[in-house]
Amino acid sequence: MIAQTRMLESAWCEGEVRVVPLHRRPDLVEACADLVNSEWQRSRGARIHGLQKSCQDFPVCLVLIQGPGNGEQLLGHARLSRVVGRSSSLFVESVVVSKAQRGKGYGRVLMEETERYARARGFQRLCLTTHDKQHFYAHLGYVLSQPVQNAGAMTTFVPMEVLQKFSRLPKRRARSYL
Fold it and tell me: Where is the N-acetyltransferase domain (predicted)?
C-alpha cells in the first residue's frame, strides 16, 4: 500500500459529466453499491448501509454522472472523509469508474471534480492509499507521503478532538538496565 497526497489546484472539466454528493441522490445508492462492489466485493446490504452514511459533514460519497434526466448513467464513485490530526486534509477512497467506461478519461474527471469539491469546502490537501494505481495518481500530480489516519464515518458520532487523542502513539519511556 502506497500513501500519496496532492496539493489541490484549480483545473476541472465541465459539460454533461458532473459530480454530485450521493446523499442528494438517494435514488442512486443501489446502483452505486453495485458499482463499488464490482471492484471491492462486500455484501450488498453492508455496502448500501455504508453508502447511506454519506452526508454534508463527512464522510461524503461523490458520484460521477453523465447525461440528463432519464438518460443518466452512473460512471464513477469516490468517498471523502476527514483525516485525523490534519484539519486541512481529506482522505479519498473507493475511487472507481465503471469497467465499461475505463480508459476514456473519466477517472481523471472524477478525481478533478473530487478535488474541486474538496477545495470548495475549504480543504487544501487530499490523501489516499493505493496498491496498484500509483502511476495513475502520479500522473494527476499526487506524490508519495507519510501514511495518515482516515477518520471514516467515526466523525459523525465521535468528535475529531477525541479521535486525535486516541490516534497518538504512546510515548515510550527510556528503559535503563543495571
Answer: 17-165
pLDDT digits (tens, 9 = 90+) for 122-172: 999 999 999 899 999 999 999 999 888 888 755 554 555 654 555 554 444
To the nearest 10 degrees (0 to 180), the angle between helices 29-39 and 44-51 is 120
Give the integer Cα–Cα distance in Å for 106 and 88: 26
3-state secondary structure at position 152: helix
Residue 152 CA, distance from chain mean position = 10
Q: H helices then E strands: how many in the chain?
A: 5, 7
Taking the C-alpha atoms of residue 6 and residue 134, their distance in angstroms, rounded to an integer, is 13
**Which residue type sits at 58?**
F
pLDDT tens profile 23-52: 999 999 999 999 999 999 999 999 999 999
pTM exceeds cut of 0.85: no
Neighbouring CB atoms inside 10 A of 105's CB total 13
CB 4 within 8 A of CB 145: yes
Residues 6+ apart with CB under 8 A from 106: 17, 64, 75, 76, 97, 98
Question: Which helix (H) or strand (E) covers residue 66, if one does?
Answer: strand 60-66
